Automatic annotation (TrEMBL):
Record has Chaperone as a keyword: yes
Keywords: Chaperone
Gene: pfdn5.L
SUPFAM superfamilies registered for this protein in UniProt: Prefoldin
Family membership noted in the UniProt record: Belongs to the prefoldin subunit alpha family.
One Gene Ontology cellular component annotation held by this UniProt entry: prefoldin complex
Species this chain originates from: Xenopus laevis (African clawed frog)
Its biological purpose: Binds specifically to cytosolic chaperonin (c-CPN) and transfers target proteins to it. Binds to nascent polypeptide chain and promotes folding in an environment in which there are many competing pathways for nonnative proteins. Represses the transcriptional activity of MYC.
Protein name: Prefoldin subunit 5
Domain of life: Eukaryota
The keyword Chaperone is assigned to this record: yes
InterPro entries membership: PFD_alpha_archaea, Prefoldin, Prefoldin_subunit_alpha
GO annotation terms (biological process): protein folding; RNA polymerase I assembly; RNA polymerase II core complex assembly; RNA polymerase III assembly
């Protein structure tokens, strides 16, 4: 069970340590959200690419990507099924409609994951801000105390 600590009871070095920990957690959560958004965008783009697969484009010549910067010429022979990378090197043949549904489910799943992480990120930001404010107060108190002892 997590223990609650009042930040007003922490010393300046303890607050600095807590701020550092919160910085790391904020960075991790922000990075996680960014990575999920990148994957989500790829699924959206893949779903949009399926619009090319229709009878009017059958037999047309096109460029097929081998890598992000290398393409080979190809001909669109079958517009009814495609191969989808489902992860870890596995590919599954699906109809265009099944592929659209697959990509839609993936986008919805990633959206839910982002929505789960977002409140935690906001909470960590708020905690970090509170720690920074408390550090400022403690520094002012130390500065005032030193100024008061030097006048005496």
């Amino acid at each position: 069970m997590a223990q609650t600590v009042n930040i007003t009871d922490l010393s300046l070095p303890q607050l600095e340590g807590l701020k550092s920990q919160l910085d790391q957690e904020v960075e991790f959560l922000s990075s996680s959200i960014a990575q999920l958004k990148v994957v989500q965008t790829k699924y959206v783009e893949a779903k949009e690419c399926l619009t090319v697969l229709n009878k009017s484009n059958e037999g047309k010549h096109l460029l097929v990507p081998l890598t992000s910067s290398m393409y080979v010429p190809g001909t669109l022979n079958d517009v009814s099924t495609i191969m989808i990378d489902v992860g870890t090197g596995y590919y599954v043949e699906k109809t265009v409609e099944d592929a659209k549904a697959f990509f839609k489910r993936k986008v919805e799943f990633l959206t839910k994951q982002i929505e789960k992480i977002q409140p935690a990120l906001q909470e960590k930001h708020a905690m970090k801000q509170a720690v920074i404010e408390m550090m400022s107060i403690k520094i002012q108190q130390l500065t005032s105390a030193k100024a008061g002892t030097s006048k005496a």
